Amino acid sequence: MKILVTGGAGFIGSHTVVELTSEGHEVVILDNLSNASRKVLKRLSEITGKQIPFYEADIRDRAALTDIFRKERPEAVIHFAGLKAVGESVRLPWEYYENNIGGTLALLDVMRSNDCRNIIFSSSATVYGDPAEIPITEACPKGTCTNPYGWTKSMLEQILTDMQKADPAWNTVILRYFNPIGAHKSGRIGENPGGIPNNLMPYITQVAVGRLEKLHVFGDDYDTPDGTGVRDYIHVVDLAKGHVKALKKLAPGSGLSIYNLGTGIGYSVLDIVRNFEEATGISIPYVIDARRPGDIAACYASAKKAKDELGWEAENGIREMCEDAWRWQSANPNGYEED
Ligand code: NAD
Ligand code: UD1
């Protein structure tokens, strides 16, 4: 299948491009490089042995999108492009709504004008809010988000749902990611946050590489086995493979489907620290700090629906996630700045 990957130079997008290409799909990448490096493209061609067409373009730019659709004629879009920093979204709500919602509305409009109504959308476990039940199934009601980023995902899910209902020619897959970590086994592509990382694993790898002094554990008084927050960490390559499997839900008449992509296993912050130390032999100094506003105690998926309907399940365990995150960070201590 010929697939346009928006945000394909980013963390999850770049790993998905590798898996799509290795399954024989034809890929075109669109990215405005607002949170990605052009160097990813060279590394993708190194890993895949293919020159993947790349357009430096913005999803809010209808003229550019129209040109790309007319030229490339993609059959489907995997839509990763968006801003994703939770704290930043609290400071810059207009920018998040405009980029994520405005951009997606422009994309959907150009898609239907060009007779392409197959889309896989990157959503997040954040739409469940403080979940009504754990493990979280897709039947669990959406909740109250604690930040504008989360609301963009929740609102975009609603927009996609309403559009599919109004025009059943749309085949729509919404994937709710849990916590993607790890990196490609080659160590050539990985997560490259700008500034001080907000998320746990990149923070730990930057402590390990000596860029940061110690980890701050946000609260040890949650109602969890060791008091620290519990999450469902998933290897980014497994997540990427989930997208390849989800393509089958874009067959004509598929309608709209929603899947959790997680492992179904919850690890606490201190479990992650211990597993990272065991996998790498590097000790991670930490201090216990106050809870981070907006955090919940525990969040992990039921991954059963994706297994039953897509034939997908995560293959990598926490050890591989830690090893691969470290291989990437240690080989690229300053991300893509090296070459
Ligand atoms: P990322 O920032 O690495 O990738 C997003 C890419 O989109 C970047 O390369 C950025 O340059 C590009 N982009 C942003 N706005 C754009 C625009 N207007 N036009 C064109 N390109 C634009 O993030 P990621 O971690 O790879 O996340 C991919 C998607 O998955 C995002 O939609 C994110 O919200 C969602 N998601 C991520 C996580 C996570 O923990 N990483 C969890 C749940 C959902
Ligand atoms: C974060 C986002 C969420 C997004 C998800 C995807 C926030 C508030 N939420 O969720 O919207 O969908 O990523 O991966 O950012 N922790 C520390 N110290 C740190 C960093 C994190 O103790 O320096 C703890 C957190 O309190 C949490 C766990 O580690 O218990 C995981 O945090 P993080 O990696 O930021 O992910 P989430 O909070 O689950």
In terms of DSSP E residues, the strand content is 15-25%
Largest β sheet strand count, sense and barrel closure = 7 strands, parallel
Going by helix content, strand content and strand pairing, the class is: alpha/beta
Overall form? globular
Order of strands, widest sheet: 3-2-1-4-5-6-11
Helical percentage: 25-40%
Low-pLDDT parts are none
Radius of gyration: 19 Å
Contiguous helical run count: 11
Q: Can you write the helix and strand succession as a string?
A: EHEHEHEHHEHEEHEEEHEEHEEHH
User: What ligands can be seen in this structure?
Assistant: nicotinamide-adenine-dinucleotide, uridine-diphosphate-N-acetylglucosamine
Distance between the termini: 33 Å
Mean pLDDT: 97
**Strand count:** 14
